[in-house]
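Practice problem 4.
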């Protein structure tokens, strides 16, 4: 397993791309936390007001993903990256001077123009690796994503304890800009040599690629992130009921560590698993986590959930990239980003309603059932796709020698 990952990192430009991308993604995952702290501590407003800014930013990211992806297809990655870097610098520098009403609108625009570090990195990995190394490369990328979620928000909280929330906003903006500019400087290829001619042929009509199979995988992307956002809320609710909220960070760290391990193990497997099966298993192991009533048992319960998280997200991205024609791959990966952002936005309130209507365990049940429903519908939808697309979606439906391409996530 170690040898396979060493070979991936030996691909020219791969190690530098993953390193710079980690900086950008860690900062992007911390943007909501930075804005929350600024609204609550800097403007002295409520958490509800902070939630409004976070919702505006998230809505912008969801709507902007396909638009930025289409621009990447048209103009290439460097132009789009540099343009979004400039807009992010303007936004984050101005945050400490903006009143709340203007901040709401500005956050939405910032979401629309979020640096597409994640999408560009995943497309580049697909172009830079061969069939032999691609699954391991995307396993490393999934680990990178988990590390960014573990590190980014935590660093923002630590920085807020030492300095003002306005300075924290500047630091987050600087890191986003530095990461985006670094990827633009590297200017990684987004199409393999064999795909260049297909991309030059132009954009295929949307009806040719936005079919039942692609809709199925987008639905499963939505279901996966709906589960993840719901699990986070259920963890907090369970520990709050037990009077152990201070242990939430430990449980989340165990969850993230298990996901990192799961991603590395899955990337080393000789054959991938169907996306719907991974998502269904993820939903199944989430439901009994509600039986845990204190932090040690909750740590044990989320290990199973974590082990399946990165593999599921990786399989979703692999399927999307295989179903996306080269001429519209940026737009399709943007649609995946939007689906996952929508899942995050959907999961928390639905699970919150379940918790309020029952007990914290109901949150795990609701999150698990949402994933199971998405897996079932995705499996049924995918079987309605045209037979001519079957070869392109082999990795999505059945175990095969498939590669693991992009795993778009929500925040850029």
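Answer key:
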């Amino acid at each position: 397993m170690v040898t396979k990952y060493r070979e991936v990192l030996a691909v020219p430009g791969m190690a530098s791309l993953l390193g710079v991308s980690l900086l950008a993604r860690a900062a992007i995952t911390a943007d909501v936390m930075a804005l929350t702290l600024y609204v609550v501590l800097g403007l002295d407003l409520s958490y509800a007001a902070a939630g409004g800014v976070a919702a505006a930013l998230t809505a912008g990211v969801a709507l902007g993903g396909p638009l930025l992806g289409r621009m990447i297809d048209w103009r290439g990655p460097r132009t789009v990256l540099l343009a979004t870097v400039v807009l992010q610098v303007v936004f984050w520098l101005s945050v400490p001077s903006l009143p709340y009403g203007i901040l709401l609108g500005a956050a939405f625009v910032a979401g629309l123009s979020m640096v597409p570090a994640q999408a560009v990195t995943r497309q580049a990995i697909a172009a830079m690796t061969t069939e032999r190394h691609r699954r391991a490369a995307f396993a490393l990328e999934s680990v990178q994503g988990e590390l960014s979620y573990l590190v980014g928000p935590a660093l923002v909280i630590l920085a807020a304890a030492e300095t003002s929330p306005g300075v924290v906003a500047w630091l987050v903006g600087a890191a986003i800009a530095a990461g985006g500019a670094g990827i633009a400087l590297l200017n990684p290829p987004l199409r393999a040599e064999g795909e260049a001619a297909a991309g030059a042929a132009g954009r295929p009509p949307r009806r040719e690629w936005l079919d039942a199979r692609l809709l199925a995988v987008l639905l499963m992307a939505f279901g996966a992130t709906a589960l993840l956002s719901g699990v986070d809320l259920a963890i907090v609710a369970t520990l709050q009921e037990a009077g152990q909220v201070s242990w939430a960070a430990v449980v989340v760290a165990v969850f993230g560590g298990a996901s990192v391990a799961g991603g590395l193990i899955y990337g080393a497997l000789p054959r991938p698993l169907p996306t719907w099966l991974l998502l269904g298993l993820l939903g199944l192991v989430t439901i009994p986590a509600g039986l845990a009533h204190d932090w040690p048992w909750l740590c044990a319960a989320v290990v199973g959930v974590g082990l399946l998280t990165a593999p599921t997200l990786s399989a979703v991205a692999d399927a999307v990239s295989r179903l996306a024609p080269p001429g519209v791959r940026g737009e399709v990966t943007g649609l995946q980003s939007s689906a996952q952002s929508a899942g995050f936005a959907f999961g928390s309130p639905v699970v919150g309603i379940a918790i309020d209507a029952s007990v914290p365990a109901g949150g795990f049940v609701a999150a698990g059932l949402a994933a199971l429903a998405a897996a079932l519908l995705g499996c049924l939808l995918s079987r309605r796709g045209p037979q001519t697309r079957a070869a392109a979606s082999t990795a999505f439906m059945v175990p095969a020698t498939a590669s693991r391409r992009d795993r778009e996530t929500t925040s850029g």
